[in-house]
Amino acid sequence: MIRPAPHIAGMAAYALADMQPPDGKPLVSLAQNESLRPPSPAARVAAMRALDHGEHYPDPDWTALRHAIAECHDIEPEGILCGSGSLDLIGAIARVYAGSGRAALAPAHAYPFFRTATEMAGARFDTAPERDLTVDTEALLAAVRPDTSVVFVANPGNPTGTRIGKDALRELRAGLRDDILLVIDEAYGEFADHLDARCFDMVSSGATVVLRTMSKAYGMAGHRVGWGLFPVPVAQEIRKVVNPNNISAASQAAAVAAIRDHDYMQETCALTAAGRKAAWERLRDAGFEVVEGHTNFLLLDCGDGESARAMDHALRAQGIFLRQQAGAGLPQMLRLTIGPEGAMEKALTLIERLAQGNRR
Ligand SMILES: Cc1ncc(COP(=O)(O)O)c(C=O)c1O
């Protein structure tokens, strides 16, 4: 009988959003933290042009893309690696630096794929408590064990939306052993870049990686483009396990054009922040505790797990999909992506009505 490797047989599959609207109801997807608008029109033009040369493999070194990223962030292209989404790079990091006999550590309500990637690599996944749904660097340091080899921190976090400042990240780095890789996942970084200094300079310490994605602020989730800045020796190891030709030529071309259209991305961030504020106010007025955060989503506290499931169920019955958060240890919470205006109006109106009904 064929058998999977024991560490794979023993792990749960990563829970993807389940979004089947009832018959006749159009899908309102606010479950996956996708952008409220499509990528820059320049990205579409570049992708269409690249499609005409589809007989060729894509650039395996992402040369134009790495240079566009380097120019945009004023960093060196040598340490940049690109992935088929940042998921690709998170998986590669776990395969190289976690693995059998080692462990990765993350905050209690961390992005669930950190666990999946760690377990896929055959390593143990540990967590440390958070404080007020915010990364607690002291608790993380206290949870480090002799076999800890990777610490994952998403900043801002998903699903919490909260973030810690650069000083706290520096303290965390300073408190970790030199043989522990600190991974700062800034998937939502563009939404918070105005708040304080960026973290790319921490990479020069030699054991820190900063990840970003084109899926959120650039509206390119369907293109699967993520990237990271790595110390060069770390990049050389990661490179060994990243699939060759992992990003299609059309997606690479689209990403280059999107990065160059900086104004469009910033406008997306501004529209998202305005939508987030408006939604936060409506939900708060409807009686919810809502974590506002610095991302393209809100975290809605329904009080307890049963109420969150009931709310989710009632929304789904109308084709509106938010995301339950039991997988991140927050069963009482629903995560609401800030989507296009029409979708938000439908969702918020129904949530307000349901909350009013519950109070009666
Ligand atoms: C914190 C965090 N990291 C990484 C990812 C993965 O993004 P990508 O689409 O680049 O694989 C997500 C996606 O939701 C995320 O929330």
From TrEMBL:
Q: Where does this protein act, in terms of pathway?
A: Amino-acid biosynthesis
* Enzymatic class: transferase
Known cofactor(s): pyridoxal 5'-phosphate
Q: Which residues form the Aminotransferase class I/classII large domain?
A: 26-349
InterPro entries, A to Z = Aminotrans_II_pyridoxalP_BS, Aminotransferase_I/II_large, HistidinolP_aminotransfase, PyrdxlP-dep_Trfase, PyrdxlP-dep_Trfase_major, PyrdxlP-dep_Trfase_small
Coiled-coil residues are none
Pfam families membership: Aminotran_1_2 (PF00155)
**SUPFAM superfamilies listed in its UniProt record:** PLP-dependent transferases
Q: Supply one GO molecular-function term.
A: histidinol-phosphate transaminase activity
PROSITE patterns referenced in this protein's UniProt entry, alphabetically: AA_TRANSFER_CLASS_2 (PS00599)
Q: Which CDD domains would you find in this protein's record? A: AAT_like (cd00609)
Q: What is its EC number?
A: 2.6.1.9
Question: Belongs to which family?
Answer: Belongs to the class-II pyridoxal-phosphate-dependent aminotransferase family. Histidinol-phosphate aminotransferase subfamily.
UniProt protein name: Pyridoxal phosphate-dependent aminotransferase
